């Protein structure tokens, strides 16, 4: 029997390999759970999405390997690659479902999936104010699973919200116009007041100037009288 000698380098590589395998055990179990539901490539179930969220948050997908259609081995390094190669879904679609689950809660998310509410409907719902979202989520239409009624409610609230935004925008525009008009009127008043001040300053009575003018008047008058008297001499 031949003795198998393991060099220190080989032993180190084996230990590192075991450590890597141990570190990936959790993510492999999660992926196994997703595959066990046989929904891979769909990810519409709350349980699946919660597992996908754990996978995304932990980043334990990094280092997983995948063999593509050409037989090339791809090492997963990003969440987008994980979605594409492992979850078989576009990252944007997975992220949108995770956002919907987080924002609306498990109960409504399940109800929306059962009613087959479309992505656009849920996107519009996300854009509504929280109070309007609550009206939809807690509505009898959702409880009854009435897809058409839910869609109509979302559309009505969207129209209501748009009108409120438009009305507010018009109020802002009107306020801006009034502010500009008042500012213009104020500028005109300031200019007019400045002109009046300048005119008053020009017309302002000066005692010293008046004294000088009177003195000059009498001096000229005296000189004229002297000349007249000299003419009679």
Automatic annotation (TrEMBL):
Key word Coiled coil present: yes
Superkingdom field: Bacteria
Ranges in coiled-coil conformation: 151-202
Keywords: Coiled coil
Protein's name according to its UniProt entry: Uncharacterized protein
